[in-house]
């Protein structure tokens, strides 16, 4: 029997029907259906999320906070037949389950500006709804996750251990990354500037991490909340720009990337509508840096993984992490041109 079938049983599903939902690069996710109900079942990647109690604790804190004071509702975590929130199988894999919110679905790229606006507003509203939660109660689930200085150091460490062949192939990209080190300096500076607040950031704001309502076509809530933790303004709006502004994601060939102006505007205006007046004036003034920060960071992360022989991201062919890095840095170059041409506020 497949491990997912055993796991489903622990969460009360007997002889279920299951579908593999493959979008993420980290966890394995399934939709299980049986006895007229469905749930999302996940095998947690514990190499990435080393402490399952931290991700579970954060999730419950967020869930309860939203339940008390917000219209926004996220899927509830489900319990096993013996009342636990997680189950460990005989291979030592952790499993958990979430309620499947009926009549919802996830969108994929390319998507209309209406969908993008609705998703961006939802991510903004999520952070706004958590504004009165003391952000220090959310524990960092991956230390240094969107710390650009940390990511830059990890790339340097990867360079020092890389194979000759992979290093030669990466040379031009490494030069482009080095030439933009001012983005790392900006990150270091913002931590000491009180105009930038620490707040609850989702940190993985892909379009596919939003549930949409099938009837209204509007965003319902963000999902994939393992990386919700204290962060800075650029992460969520920036990761949306990073992952949505081109008509295909980071797995597309670099020569196909482009900045869609309408999508860009929908992200910014949707996010502003959602986050409302919790954004400070300093954050607002710097909003157009966000996409560049995130493309730069993701380019660095993919290249560091390539130079480390692909230990982190799932790949489908040997050079995929290099191609993803090239995609992100190419999009960064295009975004720089686009932002420079924006009318000054
Ligand atoms: C990972 O697995 P997924 O797709 O939810 C990664 C994000 C990256 C993304 C790039 C925990 O997210 O930070 O932006 O891949 N998540 C983690 O596709 O590293
Ligand atoms: Mg994720």
Write the layout of secondary structure elements.
Layout: H1 3-10, E1 17-21, E2 28-34, E3 37-44, H2 52-69, E4 77-78, E5 87-88, E6 94-99, E7 104-106, H3 113-129, H4 148-161, H5 164-178, H6 182-190, E8 199-201, E9 210-213, E10 219-222, E11 229-231, H7 234-244, H8 261-275, H9 281-285, H10 290-307, H11 320-340
Antiparallel strand pairs: 1-2, 2-3, 3-6, 4-6, 5-6, 7-9, 8-11, 9-10
The protein binds 2-acetamido-2-deoxy-1-O-phosphono-alpha-D-glucopyranose and magnesium ion.
The site of magnesium ion (MG) has 4 residues, from loops.
User: Biggest β-sheet, characterized?
Assistant: 6 strands, antiparallel
Number of strands: 11
Mean pLDDT, all residues: 95
CATH superfamily of the largest domain: Aminoglycoside phosphotransferase (APH), C-terminal lobe
Query: Which fold name corresponds to the CATH topology of the largest domain?
Result: Aminoglycoside 3'-phosphotransferase, Chain: A, domain 2
**Shape by Cα distribution:** globular
What does this structure look like?
This protein is α+β, with helices and mostly antiparallel strands and 345 residues long. It has two domains: 3-100, Phosphorylase Kinase, domain 1 (2-Layer Sandwich), CATH 3.30.200.20; 113-340, Aminoglycoside 3'-phosphotransferase, Chain: A, domain 2 (Alpha-Beta Complex). The protein contains eleven helices and eleven strands. The chain has helices at residues 3-10, 52-69, 113-129, 148-161, 164-178, 182-190, 234-244, 261-275, 281-285, 290-307, 320-340; strands at residues 17-21, 28-34, 37-44, 77-78, 87-88, 94-99, 104-106, 199-201, 210-213, 219-222, 229-231. Strands 1, 2, 3, 4, 5 and 6 form a six-stranded antiparallel sheet that branches. It has a three-stranded antiparallel sheet with strand order 7-9-10. A two-stranded antiparallel sheet has the order 8-11. A hairpin with a 5-residue loop joins strand 9 and strand 10 (219-222). The termini are far apart. The site of 2-acetamido-2-deoxy-1-O-phosphono-alpha-D-glucopyranose (GN1) has 9 residues, from loops. 2-acetamido-2-deoxy-1-O-phosphono-alpha-D-glucopyranose binds next to loops.
């Amino acid at each position: 029997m497949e491990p997912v079938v055993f796991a489903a049983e622990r969460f009360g599903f007997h002889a279920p029907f299951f579908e593999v939902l493959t979008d993420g690069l980290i966890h394995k996710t399934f939709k299980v259906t049986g006895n007229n109900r469905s749930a999302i079942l996940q095998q947690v990647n514990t190499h990435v999320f080393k402490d399952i109690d931290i991700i579970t604790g954060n999730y419950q804190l967020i869930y309860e906070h939203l339940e008390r004071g917000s219209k926004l509702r996220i899927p509830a975590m489900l319990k096993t037949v013996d009342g636990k929130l997680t189950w460990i199988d005989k291979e030592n894999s952790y499993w958990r389950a979430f309620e499947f919110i009926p009549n919802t679905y996830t969108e994929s790229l390319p998507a209309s500006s209406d969908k993008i606006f609705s998703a961006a507003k939802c991510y903004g509203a999520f952070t706004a709804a958590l504004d009165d939660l003391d952000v220090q109660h959310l524990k960092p689930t991956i230390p240094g996750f969107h710390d650009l200085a940390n990511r830059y150091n990890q790339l340097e460490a990867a360079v020092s251990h890389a194979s000759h062949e992979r290093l030669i192939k990466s040379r031009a990209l490494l030069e482009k990354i080095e030439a933009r080190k001012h983005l790392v300096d900006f990150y270091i500076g913002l931590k000491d500037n009180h105009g930038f607040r620490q707040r609850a950031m989702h940190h993985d704001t892909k379009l596919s991490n939003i549930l949409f309502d099938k009837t209204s076509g509007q965003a319902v809530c963000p999902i994939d909340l393992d990386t919700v933790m204290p962060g800075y303004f650029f992460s969520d709006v920036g990761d949306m720009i990073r992952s949505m502004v081109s008509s295909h994601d980071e797995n597309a060939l670099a020569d196909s990337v482009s900045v869609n102006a309408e999508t860009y505007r929908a992200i910014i205006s949707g996010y502003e509508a959602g986050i409302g007046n919790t954004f400070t004036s300093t954050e607002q003034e710097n909003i157009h840096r966000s996409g560049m920060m995130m493309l730069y960071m993701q380019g660095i992360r993919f290249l560091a993984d390539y130079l480390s022989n692909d230990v982190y991201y799932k790949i489908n062919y040997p050079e995929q992490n290099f191609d993803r890095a090239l995609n992100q840095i190419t999009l960064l170059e295009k975004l720089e041109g686009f932002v420079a041409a924006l009318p000054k506020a």
